[in-house]
Amino acid sequence: MAMATISTTSWAQTPVERVETEQQLVAITIDDGPHPVNTPKLLELFKKNGVKATFFVIGRSVKRDPELAKRMLAEGHELGNHTFTHADLAKLGDLEKVRKEIEDTQRILKETTGKPAVLFRAPFLSHDENVWTVLKGMPSINASRLTTDWSGDSTPQSIFDEATKETKAGDIVLMHSWPNKTIEAMPRIIEALQAKGLKLVTVSELLAAAKEKAADK
Ligand SMILES: [Zn+2]
After folding, report:
1. pTM of the full structure
2. Which residues hold their Cβ within 5 A of ligand 1, which is an ion?
3. CA 140 to CA 103: how far, in whole Å?
4. Looking at the 3D structure of the chain, how many domains does it have?
5. How many CB atoms lie within 10 A of CB 180?
């Protein structure tokens, strides 16, 4: 079906929320790190359980903790660009400011890890024309399973429910590195998703699985 096909052009001005795939893959995404305390905890947990995740990192936090950023990549995870200061890009209303947020982060990632990001996530999932202009076709990744781990009202149980209840192949789950309750919920989240037969992979691996499917047709 042409509808299931994801091409580079369809990413041009539309964030990716999920992918159509026949493979039992799900992508966990962790925003706003690297976090000096919680990110190492996540890395240990992911290593123990054979999980690969995508960390949408903040450029200035990478600059502050380059060794941790290198470790994340060395352990098989993906680092995506989440701007330099976590600015709400659509509210900036200025192409050059948007460009600086995104390109400064690409630069620090390249200096630190040897390679810039191939994926972007907008803070607050906030996009405008300037964002698409700067991205020039780089995929912007939203999510199909949005947790409210950022909210004071959420609990480890509610985060667990949001991350797992209806989650199925092709979904992208969004969480953050800084809430301690996310770290608390994560072992059960991994267990529940794996118990559904889902393999936890990076967003790039998930996108590649979608493209393979399209190429098969
Ligand atoms: Zn964020």
Report:
1. 0.92
2. 31-32, 123
3. 14
4. 1
5. 12
